[in-house]
Model the fold of this input.
Amino acid sequence: MAKFPVIAAALVIGCGSGLLPDACLAQSASVSEGRQLAQKTCATCHVIIPNGPASWTDAPPFESIANRPGITQQWLAAFVQKPHMHMLEDRYTPGQANAIASFILSLRHKSATQ
Done:
């Protein structure tokens, strides 16, 4: 759980170049909202934070999903809105789905390619 503040801080610091600071702050808020939603609805099956508590299923950890080649914000947001497996919550608004996708992508390693 200790890694999330570092990730959020990195987003804000990385955005500190002066380019689109409002968009960067919104992204940071979206990541935070996505993490909160994931804790409530996704953590039952997925490991949502690196080195977080193990889940009882073989659902992939969010860090693993974030680092798959070709994963995009748009694809993740659309996937989150579709029922998959025994997903407990499948009625996310587009904003909530985008927030969850932003959180997942915040776990991407810098070396991962899209």
Summary: The helical segments are 3-14, 21-41, 62-66, 73-81, 94-105. The chain has one domain: 3-105.
